[in-house]
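hey so u asked for the seq, here:
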Amino acid sequence: MRRDYDPKENLIGRYETYDSRNSNQQNNDWPLEQFKEIDYRKEYQQIESFNPISQEHQKMNIQQQFLLFEKNLLLLNVCSYQQDEKSHRLEIRNLTTKALIKTIQFNDSSQQKLLAHHSMNFKDYIVISIASQIYLFDLDKIDNLQDCILKIDIESDISIQQSYILDEFRILLQFTSELLSEKKILFVLSLDDPFTHSVKQFHNLKIQLSEKDVQDYQNQYKDEPVFIKSPTQNFLYTTRSISYINSPRIREYFFIFSDKLLMINKQTFEITQKFDKSYILVGYCELQYFFISWDRKLYRLDDYFQLQFMKQLEFKNNTYPIDSRDVGITNNKLVLKVNADSIAIFDIFTLDYLNEIQEILASQNIINVVNNYVVYWSLNDSVIIISDIEGKYPCKEINREYSSKIQLLRLIDLNNLSQEEIEEKLSNFDIQQTNEISQTDKLIFIDEENMIYLNNYRKISVDKVMKDQEFQYVCLMSDKINDQIYIFAFQDQRQVMYYNIRTAEFIKIELLEDLPSFTELRSCWIDFNLNILIIYGSYYGVEDFLTAINLKTRQQIQEIQLNKYEQYPTVFIEQNYIQISTNKRIRVYLFKNETLQQVIQMNSNSLDCRSYFQQKSLNQPGYYIKEFNNIPSDQGIVANSIGILSNTNTYNHLIVLATYFKQAQKIIIDKGKIKLYYANNEINIAGYIDSDIDHDTLRKFTALSKMTHDQAVVELKNIQIYTKFVTGFGNCINMFQNNFPALEYIYKYLSLLDADQIPILIISNMYGQSNPLDIALKNKQQKIINLLLQILLKYQNHILFNEIIDKNLCELIKQNINLHEYFCESNLALQQITNDSFPSQHSDSQELLLPINLVHSQDILTKYNETFGCIVENDDSEDSSQVTIEYSMVNLPYTLSKNPKELMITLSKSDMHENFESPVIQNIINFKWEAYTKSYYQTKFYIFLIFFGSFIFESFNQAYYGLLQQNFKNDQRNVSIVIASKVISLCALLSILMDEIRQIRIQGKTYFNNAWNYFDSSYIVSYLTLSFFEQISINSDLLVLLYILAILLTFMKLYFYIRIYDQFSFLVSMMAGVFGDVKYFLAFFMIFILQFGLIFTILFRAKDVAEYRGVELLTYFLMIFRTASGDYVVDLFSEQNSSFLVALSWMIWLIAVVILNIVFMNFIIAVISESYSKVMEKLTAESYKVKANMIVEREQLFNEQDLINQRLFPQYIIIRRQLDINAGDAGEWKGFLKDLKNVIEVTSTKSKNDIIQNQVQLNKIPQILDQQKSKLETTQQEVKGDLTLLKNEISGIKTDVDSMKNDIMTIKNQVNGIENLLQESISKILEKLNK
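ran it, structure tokens below
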């Protein structure tokens, strides 16, 4: 994303003056309102994907070209030749990559094709002239000539040479004709309806002009062109040769005639303004016209239609002619072609260079920034140049002998002074020395002799101001409200001070650590809102340093400092952030509650220079000198601002992308990649966002979004491209977030890449929008949810990305997503603390779960003493035993604090016991249980025990001495004891009743959704009813019934309360589970009881049995139940009236015994055993689920103040426990099925991983085979080469041997010859001697 920056602005926003010390409100959010992201799904939805045209055997001739900077497009009118055939086409290409986007082929290749481009109402229009036909197109909707929105057929024998769009109703054409002796005719065609309407228009135009008409016109209007309206046609014409300049102004057109610029009224076409020479219209921006002359002078058209000179743009050794096509304005930038290969870009208002081609360093050092001027040495150090920052005044040069008095320029108004006047003032300065300084004085600068220069040409010694305070170095200090009202003094490495001239106060600051060593103090800044003091200096001018001191802690902020080779910082301080820009990088420090929260660093190689910055004052830009090829140094004054961001070749807004993950403490933006670091001191990145995109990337993303499934699967094989991030589209995961088959292919393709090559994948497509996991959860797409979780846990398994799951944890549990891997195997939910500040060996082995609230989870590393210091004490004596302690922290800040009640409600309704077996959930439940639930229920339990004991006493007293005596005669109970027990019971019950009423008022109808609540209310009602009837009734049977009911309900409440103890909890859960499991079996059993009971009732003719007196109707049903339970009653069988009935009775009894006693009873035992096994298997989970249910009931009683209590509902929970090397399932029997399940799960996971790895290896086999084949071929070629070389060497050796043989034979022959010669000589000598 591109944004136009004012070099006078800082990175985040404009500075507004306010008194921070009187401001009680601090904004802790990024001011992102001015950094709007572009949704490229909408921005580039009109761009289609086209395959580039092969240019083999083609000869291309580009006849016209248009640069559309706003859309990064290049329009080309191309004429090409192939096999002696000529063809014309319009090509639309990417301006950056030159990649072809679209082609429009012209049918008739023999005619000349002319193009014209015009922008109107944020749309681009194209005029194409073919022979005597004119076509007008909307650039976004052009695919062929039939897509025109306007077509004009000219029924005359003319040749169109130029065409322009004047406005929605007028088109300007220039043509020649043989009938008119090839004279150039310019005419304006007027339309009845604007061409911007969606309805296509077709016009036939017949031009009726004779050569005599043209000659008469030229004779009548000799000096200037006049447009004549045709009496028969709807057009104006002139025969003068003039050139049209495209202008967007409402009232005027601009033309060039005879080297003069003319301004013509749009309505009357009369000349309204003449200029002395011709100018090129640069462009129209912010309601202003900008012109450039042929001699490169830049002008602005004022409100009186006069050209105001702005700047002389001169380029050394450059004779490149300026053409209207080589200069323009786009996005407040002046774009000027410097030479055939270079383009320079300036800010149109300040004329500062924003982007320079082939730049070189030219100056040595800036001397100072004086008022609105930059003072610096010339290239050869011969003179001092004084250059106006805003370019309003020409540069001034003064002699180098005044270099020692440069600071005095601050006292002079330089605007209207000449060089001689400035030198004279510097020579004759009369500065009066004063001994006092007032609150209204203005501090200007401090010289090398520690003299402070004041307004009104005065100066005072620093010693007199500091009143004999000792100091080593001194400088002026500013805050963001007042410029230089403080005198800062460095006293020693641990002590600094400053003097406020407005309040006449000395403020001393005792530091807790030494400052860096330095020999020069350059600048200081202070901010009372952030409580920060920034000191900048250098060490012997070789190494610069910058340090920031927290005024509250009196310690240095380690993150705010300069790296090696960083120099010349420019400082911006705002309400909640500090920006420091240097020659290497820009850093933004974001604060929250006066604590550094995040650091964003933007690297830039374009600012690597030796010329140092000079900042005029705090929150003002710093300036440095640059010079480019053929550009003089006075044109090279540049402010180090965020304009450097435009050097990153990306369309995304990097600042906004850097804020996607709030927990990233350090973010480095470098070459389109946003690297996220979890902590400032971390070396390894947590992940990165690949935002290095261009227009070609946008085109590919747009095309992919429109492909069918099969096409997309093929295209996604180039998965590396689609892991890049484009705002609006996101990445490949965002684009196919609702397409499970496509996501499976993406996951498969990702597995072929190295993990280090994969950027962050699960991310929202725009700032503040939902990410793919959010959307899948909203749509309840469980397959996609599981796949996204796999991607997240595999490629983003870092605590930084836990916020993606944290905010959706409750919804994941609701949808029964398996979170075992997330809770137990990932690094996301549970953060292990292994820092040295947390001792791993300790004498105190107690287990602790403590709440803690942090700005950033990494801050826990400095919180040991604050968290555990007052709770655990370490015994370092030799006799004490040391145990190994482990520390961890539950990292679910959103779930624990944002909606604190939802997690427990969700868990209480969940049937997935695996969640309760995870350490994370167990730790959360344990904390909530110990923090506020257990004590609450224990208090209620103790009150209930008071009632329970009193009620049991009443029951016994009533049974033995009261109305329920066996032979009741009178009430023998002590009245005072009865009253006392009743009062105790009613008081305890009243307390319980008030709590229940409060619970009903808070929960409403949902109170009755819990079965236990029925027992709470019913036992209270039963006791009150019993107490009432005790006073008015003498019916002992009714009292017995009421007592039995009250006892049953009271004991049911007792079972509820004993669940708070782990030893009883599982027993209560087991009983409830057993009854839940056998309920259908018992119902089936009762059906058989009913069946055989009816049979026996008929068989024995409903005969009365004495032992069942009072329940005669149920006699035989009870008899069958007793038979089923093994209590056989067979006395009645022999009393039957016939032997047949006796035999039948025994037969049916045997069947009943087999079915009910042998079969059903054993079935019940088996079912209960299985139910018991299940309960034991889920013993831990059931225990925690019981606690979760009770926690839900407790949290429902909290008010709003309780819910924001950070001790009860913290962001994090820190756990301290002894490390148990035997920890696991030992000592706890969890059932055979669970063990088997764990084995299956482990085996399944391992098999799945093996399959994935094997698949990855199989996919790599063809590549490996190709590599091996290539290596084999290479080896074979090398071997062949070696063999050939060896053969050649052997042949050479053989040749050498043969040569040597020949040489030996030659030598041998020579030796033989010599030997023969010697023999002959000796023979001759002997003969002579003999003679």
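The longest helix spans residues 1232-1330. The longest strand covers residues 59-68.
lmk if thats what u needed
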